[in-house]
Amino acid sequence: MLTLDKIYHAAFVLKEVVRRTDVVPAPKINPDGEIFLKPENLQVTGSFKVRGAYFKISQLSEEEKERGVIACSAGNHAQGVALAAAKNGIRSLICIPEGAPISKVEATKSYGAQVCLVKGVYDDAYRKACELQKESGATFIHPFNDEDVIAGQGTIGLELLEQIPDLDAVVVPVGGGGLISGVAFTIKSLNPKCKVYGVQSCGAPSMANSLRDGHCETLESVSTIADGIAVKQPGDLTYDLCEKYVDEVVTVTDDEVSTAILTLMEQHKMIAEGAGAVSVAAVMFNKIDVKGKKVACLVSGGNIDVNILSRVISRGLLKAGRSVELSIELQDKPGQLREVSSIIADQGANVVAVHYDLGGEETEITACVLNISMETRNHAHIAQIRDALTAAGFKVSEKH
Q: For residue 375, what pLDDT is reported?
């Protein structure tokens, strides 16, 4: 049974292993409230997962340690288990979905774990891990549906209340629910007035749907850039804890997550993965009420694949109105491009790409189309540019 004593014990065990992450003021995330970041992306292994994994492994008997451990993960739990096993001198085998970022797979191997790549998503890796566990007799370290793992994650709640005693709300990423279960239990036990909000991706709302409908549900599929929380079904243990202690679970889009990642990079020099940034996205886009409140966002991990980082940044720039591609219909005669360029320059935008096409079926036979990409300040700036071009007689549309 999960108790505060167990969470305090976990904090004692973890004291020499994990980093006590700071809280960082983030006034620009949402000026309506007093916002703080809890950067678990700066944790050992780059995410909070090492807390639960290490505490679970520390509680194994000597006989269990002899047989080794097995786990399944999209990446962060894998690294936590691998590091914890190495520090305890035991073998570890990790089943990872083959679509997980290469950086996470390689990092897991670097901690000394044996890796088994499995076709599909997290739930497929879970089934494979269960098969291998029966064959080997190793102890299965569940990423979220385990009381010791949840207790380890709950140590974040202890730290938060010590760092901000008058905290009004905490916003937590949710996949299977282990992190929010531990944090919510801890915070509600010590400060029942503090709100606990969970955040999931619109493409993987398993806990949100389950809580809405009053029972554990399984999604047919998941699709999100937040691979660390792409879980089809929450645990029964985490579902029960969330139902009892969590105030609300909201969802955010991939575009909103991309914007949050970009904002954390620009404003706080902080790299977050998609799953780690969903809490910030929820606060940025007013998915929860933060007006006049002290709110902490858990940035749960920073192990983003550098190969997709540029794509995420591009999506974030588009969402924030920092870049745009306009299609402008021109008459195919000299001077048109010069006039368009002059208007854009007068409006203070920076052109980064130009593509010129002869007109299609829907344009006049003497017309052509100019596709022009530019750097802009915000959505209001884009509207100004469109208005100026339209006032000059050009037909303008925005490409998405």
A: 94
Spatial CB neighbours of 176, under 8 Å, sequence gap ≥ 6: 143, 144, 145, 207, 231, 233, 234, 235, 238
The total number of residues shown for the chain amounts to 400
Which region among 212-221, 282-291, 335-344, 361-370 has the lowest average model confidence (pLDDT)? Answer: 361-370
Distances (CA, A) of 328 to 189, 365, 370, 374, 399: 59, 15, 5, 13, 10
- The chain-wide mean pLDDT, for the chain, equals 92
To the nearest 10°, report the CA torsion of 367, 373, 374, 376.
100
Query: DSSP secondary structure string, 323-377?
Result: EEEEEEEEESSTTHHHHHHHHHHHTT-EEEEEEEEE--TTS-TTEEEEEEEEE-S
Starting at the edge strand found earlier in the chain, the sheet holding 114-118 runs 114-118, 92-97, 69-72, 139-140
What pTM did the predictor assign? 0.86
pLDDT for position 330: 83
Contact between residue 251 and residue 279 where contact means Cβ atoms under 8 Å apart: no
How far apart CA 226 and CA 205 sit, in angstroms, is 12
* Active-site hit among 47, 258, 279, 300: 300
Candidate list 6, 49, 188, 287, residue with the active-site label: 49
pLDDT of the residue at 360: 56
User: DSSP string spanning 222-288?
Assistant: ---S-GGG--SS--HHHHHHHHHH--EEEEE-HHHHHHHHHHHHHHH-----HHHHHHHHHHHTTSS
pLDDT in tens, 63-82: 999 999 999 886 789 899 99
Active-site residue flag, 223? no
Helix (H) or strand (E) holding 198: strand 195-201
Of 327, 392, 391, 378, give the one whose Cα is nearest residue 354. Answer: 327
Answer yes or no: 300 catalytic. yes
What tens digit of pLDDT does each residue of 243-291 get?
999 999 999 999 999 999 999 999 999 999 999 999 999 999 999 999 9
